[in-house]
Design goal:
Layout: H1 2-22, H2 31-46, H3 50-59, E1 70-71, E2 80-81, H4 103-110, H5 116-147, H6 158-166, H7 172-200, H8 203-230, H9 234-284, E3 297-298, E4 301-302
Antiparallel strand pairs: 1-2, 3-4
Helix pairs in contact: 1-2, 3-7, 4-5, 4-8, 5-9, 7-9, 8-9
Length: about 300
Amino acid sequence: MKFILLLALSLSIFDQFKLVCSQNYTSKSPVYTSLINAFVSKTDAIRLSYDIRDRLTIVFKTKVYRKPDIVLSRLDMYESSSNSPNFDYFVQMYDKSGLPDLESIMYNIIGRGDDEVRRKMKGDIEYITKLRHDIRNFYNNIYKGLFVEPKFIEINGFQQAFEKFNKTPLKKAQEKKIKENIDFIGNAHSQIITSLSEKLSETPFSRLECSKQYDSSKNKLNAIKKSENDADMNDVSFSFLMDVSVFITELTTKLEAFKNDMSAASSVVDELTKARIQWLEIVMGVKIQAQNGGVRMSCCGAI
């Protein structure tokens, strides 16, 4: 009788192992979802703690940031409050065009002159464009790290490591290693998310300051442009240039503050992405080696 029970249990384990190995994974398969599915199938066979599986599911979840009371609407609108559970404030941080472009209006006002004053102003305007692009890049990095699950192809060497993990049963030594490291993984994840929440909580306010400055500057620039079209005197035109210079300085200050906040949050997202690579390796018991001499990559950059 005992022999029959052992045989039945062995066949059940074999069937579950065969099921996970038979699933089709491609270069476009989602990394975390695939790992959790494979891990659950293996641990179902050996009855590993549900608590461990649930905790691993949390650290590899892609939507990690809670929605605050203060939300961000499109950049051409002001801050509003919402308790809607369906509103992911960070996703709504920009419209598709990102930060508004005021540089074209500034270039139009200062004209094509090549004197020292205009050359400096043009350089300052180019810097504003760079700040806008930097902010948008940080936003994209944060968005991808929090809301987009990477695919196998986006982490160099992951597919090979996963296939090695997936084709063998979970060994007792690996089960023990996971149990020993689950608290470390959970605590590290909590610390990173706490840091991320703190950094991201600054972005609504610096973004709002930029939005207000853009609205104010746009109205004043349009007024200057209209006045300049009606003016003929060179000294008046120089006065216009000085007004534009003031707006450039004010806008640059607000953009730099916003960029710094976004950069800080983006750095924590990179930290989370790198940590997840290490956690993948702990769970699989397999080192993720970059293939063909490449750099081990994640959805958010090189590691």
